[in-house]
Amino acid sequence: MRYLPLTDTDRAEMLDVIGASTIDDLFVDVPEAARLDGPIEGLPLHASEMAVERHMRRLSKKNLAAADAPFFLGAGAYRHHVPASVDHIIQRGEFLTAYTPYQPEIAQGTLQMLFEFQTQVARLYGCAVANASMYDGSTACWEAVAMAGRVTKKKRVVLSGALHPHYAEVVRTMAKFTEDEIAGAAPALQAQPDNDGLITRIDEQTSCVVVQYPDILGRLPDVAKIADAAHEKGALLIVVNTEPVALGAIKSPGELGADIVVGEGQSIGVGLNFGGPYLGLFAVRDQKHVRQMPGRLCGETTDAEGKRGFVLTLSTREQHIRREKATSNICTNSGLCALAFSVHMTLLGEKGLRALAAENHRLTCLAADRLAKVPGVTVLNDTFFNEFTILVDGDARGIVRELAEDGVLAGVALSRLFPDKEDIARGILVAVTETTSEDDIDALCSALKEKLA
Amino acid sequence: MNAPNQSGWKPSAPVSHDGAHEGPETVTGNRALMLEEPLIFEIATPDTTGVDLPQPADDISSRLGGLKRDQAIGLPGLSEPETVRHYTRLSRQNYAIDLGLFPLGSCTMKHNPRLNEKVARMPGFADVHPLQPVDTVRGALEVMNELAHWLITLTGMHGVAMSPKAGAHGELCGILCIRAALEARGDARKVVLVPESAHGTNPATAAFAGYEVEDIPATKDGRVDLEALKARLGPDVAGVMITNPNTCGLFERDMKAISDAVHEAGGFVYCDGANFNAIVGKVRPGDLGVDAMHINLHKTFSTPHGGGGPGSGPVVLSEALSPFAPLPYTARTKDGQVHLIEEEGANAFSNEHFGGSMQSFGRMTAFHGQMGMFTRALTYILSHGADGLKQVAEDAVLNANYVLRACEDVLFAPFADSGPCMHEALFGDKNFGGDLTTLDLAKGMIDEGYHPMTMYFPLVVHGAMLIEPTETESKAALDQFIMALRSVASRAKDGDESLKQSPYYAPRRRLDETQAARKPLLSWIDGDTA
């Protein structure tokens, strides 16, 4: 077996040193009745690297890769070009096969990277402090809600109807167990987000208001106005961002008054991966909230010779120290995805991120204008960044499915996201990035034209 | 039993650290291949970029509704050569499994096969969107289902929730399944029992799920005190969280009796599967009465730790808990087709194919789980097969016992007399001379070229040192590690004060953690970000 270095001679010698006659002498504490004699039945035996690769390739070929079709899916996961050097760096064994940096003297590589990552995220979000990552955007969103409860000591959570429904479902699921009260609303298919409707639901018992920016339909809510309304009632504003590239073109949530900013970082460096692993981002605008944050934090310090170095810090918030009084139970987070994000962001820099955002927006405007000309298609949004909603004359879900059969991945049918809301069965969420060519846009337009004719 | 010193190593005088070997200071601060590296904020400029993108036109029609960014972000940029060099230099300041033995107890730092990495990057897995129409992702669903089948079979359980993102997320999933099952029968229990030796995530998880946490007492030989546990069980106890093998590296001999007692009292048994590597293919937790157990794919099934994640924590479930599993999940029907079950139609599907209603407690994450880890773990599992996985457990346990017996004469081994350990060897600081501590020994191991063992955990042993060599170490590698550990342990025993300043040879000397916590600097601040 290629991953096991011990030879039978080694094993015999080692048993001898231990003073055991067979390997089963070392398993004596396992009750004999439960011990298995041979390999578990019904499962295949070991296989060569070549055989395994062949099997996995066969499974991989049964999927339609995004690069092989005009591709327009978004809704919380976006396809972007990731420079080749990103994947090269995350495959360096010193990063790939390292553990959480609990021994800082021999983990400065990971720690300095995390410090740089935290700074990049904080600046992107317009915040003072970001943590060293969460699992993904949806779990970061719940952690933010839980944190707001700790800060405000209130239990009522107001969710925007245009929050990603899977994020809302994660919050609702967790709140069932923490007895938080969730006030949600159905999304309405209209050109503008219902800022005022959301504001009227904020009251004195509200711990936090959760707004997605850009929202699930691609629209841009009036975050500053909602922030003022939340703060007036003593509530925190949590802004959720699922497309970090957008923040190269639009004002940061922190600048608009968000108290906690969370999001999905997958767009930068990580890739689609059929939904995971992704990268949860978590930041607070004001450093005073830092001790209520979940997750790991990396901080600067000095070593015994006075040299600058980095360590994990404020760990008295965390489970391995505080146990049942911890701010979260999170342990392993998304370290390697944070590295991918940080490398990609360093390659982009200020200039590159802004150019990337501009290119995304330019192509998206172009796609919206061309789609608007297709008979039977209406573009819903007044505002958007790189994603917008179209309404089609027909069953959107069926159309998306049929277009996929024709080799066009047209977008996400809203009924996939909101299965119980019949009024939005006509909607399709269309995302456009720098990876989308004008030919792709034309392919989508003509495919829709044909279906709707 | 006393083991001979396999390596033939003999203690010598402590190494002198008076600087005799040190050369002149360098102007760069570098020392040959040990290179200092500034922060990106100190070397980059806002105008540099390592990507080629069209420059935006000034007059693009904007649909940003007055929210166009008008302030600088403050992001530093580097060209590609500068970027590659920056991160390559940083990488060299890290210890890693690729560099040497990584004996962190309860963390299972085994070799990460590179075929896993190759497979995970196949476009059909890496470049697929989670919301593509199901007919375009049949292969991805088959991966999930094939892995699920292995996990269920290896553990002897009934079902598996694949979506949890890491071990602690899996724990939460398991506890929420228990809570949902209790609530479904109108049973509002309040307490979860957790042994003192448990990972911190266990009590944190139970508290996060709304439970009060109480300790389970341990016996002198490092295991759950069955009689004390039985005495505490009652109508207020929702369940127990037990790690097996436990964090003392010992198998809970009474596991079946514990499960039976908990079930009899109407509760459920959660097993922390962090240490599954010791028993994979040797015993099925399902045969011991476990109701839920998370599996760290990044431990037992070799997906890389990546400097702190991503992990993956599928949860195997008993028949009693399976109906409460979170959405989404995959299921294979009699026709051989693998389905993805999301909120829509979950009940109808369950009724049609499984003759019962689904009572999922909800959703734990936006999408389907850690696909990138599923492909890696399945690749690893298929490589080993049922026979290889059994050998994995045996070699892991053999290696740990070898370390235990080769060092028990120089390090205090609290449970060594009670029999063999499982996959990890536990030592304490009882024999140390002077005021030397476990931390000093750990930092001494760094100078010998090793990542230290897990320190001060489990809490039940003073100055605990938990060593898990894993099965991917050769005998020669173990002998060298033992030689180093025996040397540093002897120095600790002799009260060698020079250990207090170790490490001497790492990229950094001991770092001031108190200063870091007192005045937290968590973000780079410069004067020119505007």
TrEMBL record, chain A:
EC number(s) from the headed UniProt entry: 1.4.4.2
Residues passing through the membrane, by range: none
Gene Ontology biological-process annotations: glycine decarboxylation via glycine cleavage system; nucleoside metabolic process
SUPFAM superfamilies: PLP-dependent transferases
First-level EC class: oxidoreductase
Residue stretches making up the Glycine cleavage system P-protein N-terminal domain: 1-447
Catalytic reaction equation(s): N(6)-[(R)-lipoyl]-L-lysyl-[glycine-cleavage complex H protein] + glycine + H(+) = N(6)-[(R)-S(8)-aminomethyldihydrolipoyl]-L-lysyl-[glycine-cleavage complex H protein] + CO2
Quaternary structure note: The glycine cleavage system is composed of four proteins: P, T, L and H. In this organism, the P 'protein' is a heterodimer of two subunits.
Summary of the function given for this chain in its UniProt record: The glycine cleavage system catalyzes the degradation of glycine. The P protein binds the alpha-amino group of glycine through its pyridoxal phosphate cofactor; CO(2) is released and the remaining methylamine moiety is then transferred to the lipoamide cofactor of the H protein.
Family label: Belongs to the GcvP family. N-terminal subunit subfamily.
Identification of the protein by name: Probable glycine dehydrogenase (decarboxylating) subunit 1
Organism field: Parapontixanthobacter aurantiacus
The encoding gene: gcvPA
TrEMBL record, chain B:
Source superkingdom: Bacteria
Gene3D superfamilies hit by this protein: 6.20.440.10, Aspartate Aminotransferase, domain 1 (3.90.1150.10), Type I PLP-dependent aspartate aminotransferase-like (Major domain) (3.40.640.10)
NCBIfam families hit by this protein: PRK04366.1
Key words, A-Z: Aminotransferase, Oxidoreductase, Pyridoxal phosphate, Transferase
Reaction(s) this enzyme catalyzes, per UniProt: N(6)-[(R)-lipoyl]-L-lysyl-[glycine-cleavage complex H protein] + glycine + H(+) = N(6)-[(R)-S(8)-aminomethyldihydrolipoyl]-L-lysyl-[glycine-cleavage complex H protein] + CO2
Organism: Parapontixanthobacter aurantiacus
Annotated Glycine dehydrogenase C-terminal domain residues: 394-493
GO cellular component: cytosol; glycine cleavage complex
Transferase found in the keyword field: yes
Classification via InterPro entries: Aminotrans_V_dom (IPR000192), GDC-P_C (IPR049316), GDC_P (IPR020581), PyrdxlP-dep_Trfase (IPR015424), PyrdxlP-dep_Trfase_major (IPR015421), PyrdxlP-dep_Trfase_small (IPR015422)
Residues covered by the Aminotransferase class V domain: 192-306
EC numbers on record: 1.4.4.2
GO BP terms, alphabetized: glycine decarboxylation via glycine cleavage system
Keyword Kinase in record: no
Protein name (Swiss-Prot/TrEMBL): glycine dehydrogenase (aminomethyl-transferring)
Record-linked Pfam families: Aminotran_5, GcvP2_C
Single GO MF annotation: glycine binding
SUPFAM superfamilies according to UniProt: PLP-dependent transferases
